C-alpha cells in the first residue's frame, strides 16, 4: 500500500512550541484583562445549526460558511430532482450544520437561549477559533482565533469607556506603545452623507469614505460626486477630516458643520466618562472618516491601528442596537470589541516585544550516568516539581553528551547531574547552561536557587 505525503488543508497552520507559547502569552494577557474588568468566559460549540448561521453575514458571508454533511448516509433524503435543481435545493437535505463563522452570532444565540438565567447587563468574553471558506492569502486564513468581549443589555456609554480602558490595559501589558485607538460614531457619518446631498445613499457614502486611506481624497471625491454629492460640501467634509486638533475641538467643529446630533452628544458624554478615570493621556484619536462595519454597528465604533508596523487594524468593535433581534429577542443593545490575535502576534514579532523565556519548556533537566542514578533521580524530580519548578529527567541511560544536547536544544537553563559520588555525598552538580558555571549543592539548595 502506497503511503501518501501528509499535508495541511489550505488556510490552516500548525504552531510549534515557540509559536504556541507566544500565542498563549497574548491570549493569557487578553484573558487576564477581560477578567479584571468583570467579564465572564463562555464557550460555544465549533458547529452550529445552519439555520442559526445563514442570513446573518450577507450573501457573500453565506458562501464562506463551511458546511458539515449529515452523518450516516447523508444522501438518503435527496433525489435526482434535487441534483438537477442545484445546490440551493440539495444543501438543506444533506447538511444541517456548519462551522461557526464568527463568535458574535453564536453569542446572540446563547443570549436568547439563556436569557432567563443571565444577569443583565451581561459581560461575556470568548477566545475560540472560527472558520471561513475564504481564499487563503497573506494574513487571511480559513481557521483563526477571535478574542471577543461584549456587554449586552445596557445602553450606558460607560460601557464604551470601560472597553477603551480595557484596550489600553491590554496593550500596556503586552508592552506595545505604538498604537492609536481611532473612534467615530455611525450617526455622524449618516449626517455627513445627508449634508453632502446623499440622503438615501448613506451606506454607499460610507463604503467610499472607508477607502480614503487606500485611494486618497481625489479618487474618493470623484466617486462621491459620481453618487450625486455636492462638490463644495464634500470639500467642507474633507476639511473636517483633515482637521488636526484635540478631540473635544473636533466635536465642536463637526457640530458647526452639521449641527448637534446624537453622535456628537454621545461622543461628548463618552469623553466625560474617560476624563473621570483620571488616567492621564490616552491614545485616542477621533477620526470622522472611520467607517468600519456600518451595516452592523449603530453607535460609537472603535479601531486600533499600529502606527509603526504595516498591518491592518489589530482591534475593532462598536455599539449595536439589536444583536438578538434575528432570533426574536428584540431591543437588546450591546457594545463589543474583538482583538486580532494573529495580527497582534505579527506586530509583537516584528518589534521583538515577546519576553525571551516564553518557549522555555523546563527550568531544569536531571541528567544521569546509569540506570541506578536515574532511579535515584526520580525522587529528586518529585522534590523539584513539588516546589513548583518545571523539571524533567532524561528517560534513557545514554551518553552524557546526548543529554546535554537535549537540554541545549530545548533551551533548558540548568542541568542537575547525578553520578555515584553525588548519590553518596547527597550533593549534585548543577550546571548553568548559559555561562557554563557549575556548583555542588544539596537538593534543598538547588530547589532554593532555582526558585529564586
Structure notes:
The protein is an alpha+beta fold and 452 residues long. It folds into two domains: 17-350, BirA Bifunctional Protein, domain 2, CATH 3.30.930; 364-451, 3-Layer(aba) Sandwich (Rossmann fold), CATH 3.40.50. The chain has 18 helices and 16 strands. It has helices spanning 17-36, 50-53, 58-63, 80-85, 87-94, 104-113, 158-173, 186-195, 202-209, 212-227, 231-241, 247-258, 262-276, 341-350, 371-386, 400-409, 420-425, 443-451; strands at 40-41, 47-49, 67-69, 95-99, 122-131, 143-152, 179-185, 284-286, 300-306, 315-320, 334-339, 364-368, 391-393, 414-418, 428-432, 438-441. The strands form three sheets. Strands 1-5-6-11-10-9-7-8 form an eight-stranded mixed beta sheet. β15 and β16 (438-441) form a beta hairpin. α7 (158-173) packs across α13 (262-276), α8 packs across α9 and α10 (212-227) runs antiparallel to α11 (231-241). The longest helix is centred in the first third of the chain and has 20 residues, at 17-36. It is globular and about 90 Å long. The model has no long low-confidence stretch (mean pLDDT 90).
Summarize the helices and strands and which ones pair or pack.
Blueprint: H1 17-36, E1 40-41, E2 47-49, H2 50-53, H3 58-63, E3 67-69, H4 80-85, H5 87-94, E4 95-99, H6 104-113, E5 122-131, E6 143-152, H7 158-173, E7 179-185, H8 186-195, H9 202-209, H10 212-227, H11 231-241, H12 247-258, H13 262-276, E8 284-286, E9 300-306, E10 315-320, E11 334-339, H14 341-350, E12 364-368, H15 371-386, E13 391-393, H16 400-409, E14 414-418, H17 420-425, E15 428-432, E16 438-441, H18 443-451
Parallel strand pairs: 1-5, 7-8, 12-13, 12-14
Antiparallel strand pairs: 2-4, 3-4, 5-6, 6-11, 7-9, 9-10, 10-11, 14-15, 15-16
Helix pairs in contact: 1-7, 1-14, 7-13, 8-9, 9-10, 10-11, 12-13
Amino acid at each position: 500500500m502506497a503511503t501518501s505525503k501528509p499535508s495541511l488543508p489550505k488556510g490552516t497552520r500548525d504552531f510549534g512550541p515557540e509559536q504556541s507559547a507566544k500565542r498563549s502569552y497574548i491570549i493569557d494577557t487578553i484573558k487576564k484583562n477581560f477578567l479584571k474588568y468583570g467579564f465572564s468566559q463562555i464557550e460555544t460549540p465549533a458547529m452550529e445549526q445552519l439555520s442559526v448561521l445563514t442570513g446573518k453575514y450577507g450573501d457573500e458571508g453565506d458562501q464562506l460558511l463551511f458546511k458539515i454533511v449529515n452523518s450516516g448516509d447523508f444522501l438518503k433524503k435527496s433525489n435526482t430532482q434535487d441534483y438537477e435543481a442545484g445546490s440551493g435545493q440539495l444543501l438543506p437535505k444533506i447538511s444541517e450544520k456548519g462551522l461557526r463563522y464568527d463568535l458574535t452570532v453564536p453569542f446572540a444565540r446563547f443570549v436568547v437561549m439563556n436569557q432567563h438565567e443571565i444577569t443583565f447587563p451581561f459581560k461575556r468574553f470568548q477566545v475560540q477559533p472560527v472558520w471561513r471558506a475564504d481564499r487563503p492569502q497573506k494574513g487571511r486564513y480559513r481557521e483563526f482565533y477571535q478574542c471577543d468581549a461584549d456587554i449586552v443589555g445596557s445602553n450606558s456609554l460607560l460601557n464604551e469607556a470601560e472597553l477603551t480602558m480595557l484596550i489600553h490595559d491590554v496593550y500596556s501589558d503586552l508592552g506595545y506603545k505604538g498604537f492609536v485607538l481611532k473612534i467615530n460614531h455611525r450617526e455622524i457619518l449618516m449626517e455627513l452623507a445627508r449634508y453632502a446631498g446623499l440622503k438615501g445613499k448613506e451606506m454607499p457614502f460610507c463604503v467610499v469614505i472607508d477607502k480614503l486611506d487606500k485611494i486618497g481624497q481625489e479618487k474618493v471625491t470623484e466617486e462621491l460626486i459620481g453618487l450625486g454629492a455636492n462638490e463644495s460640501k464634500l470639500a467642507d467634509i474633507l476639511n473636517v477630516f483633515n482637521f488636526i486638533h484635540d478631540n473635544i475641538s473636533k466635536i465642536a467643529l463637526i457640530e458647526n458643520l452639521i449641527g448637534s446630533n446624537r453622535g456628537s452628544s454621545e461622543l461628548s458624554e463618552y469623553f466625560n466618562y474617560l476624563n473621570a478615570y483620571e488616567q492621564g493621556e490616552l491614545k485616542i484619536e477621533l477620526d470622522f472618516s472611520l467607517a468600519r462595519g456600518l451595516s452592523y454597528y449603530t453607535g460609537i465604533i472603535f479601531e486600533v491601528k499600529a502606527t509603526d508596523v504595516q498591518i491592518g487594524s489589530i482591534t475593532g468593535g462598536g455599539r449595536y442596537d439589536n444583536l438578538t433581534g434575528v432570533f426574536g429577542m428584540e431591543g437588546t443593545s450591546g457594545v463589543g470589541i474583538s482583538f486580532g490575535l494573529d495580527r497582534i502576534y505579527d506586530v509583537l514579532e516584528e518589534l521583538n516585544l515577546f519576553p525571551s523565556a516564553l518557549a522555555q519548556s523546563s527550568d531544569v533537566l536531571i541528567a544521569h550516568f546509569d540506570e541506578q542514578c536515574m532511579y535515584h533521580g526520580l525522587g529528586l524530580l518529585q522534590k523539584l516539581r513539588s516546589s513548583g519548578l518545571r523539571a524533567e529527567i532524561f528517560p534513557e541511560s545514554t551518553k552524557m553528551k546526548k543529554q546535554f544536547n537535549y537540554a541545549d536544544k530545548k533551551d533548558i537553563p540548568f542541568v542537575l547531574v547525578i553520578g555515584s559520588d553525588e548519590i553518596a555525598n547527597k550533593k549534585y552538580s548543577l550546571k548553568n547552561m548559559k555561562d557554563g558555571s557549575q556548583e555542588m549543592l544539596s537538593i534543598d539548595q538547588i530547589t532554593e536557587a532555582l526558585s529564586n
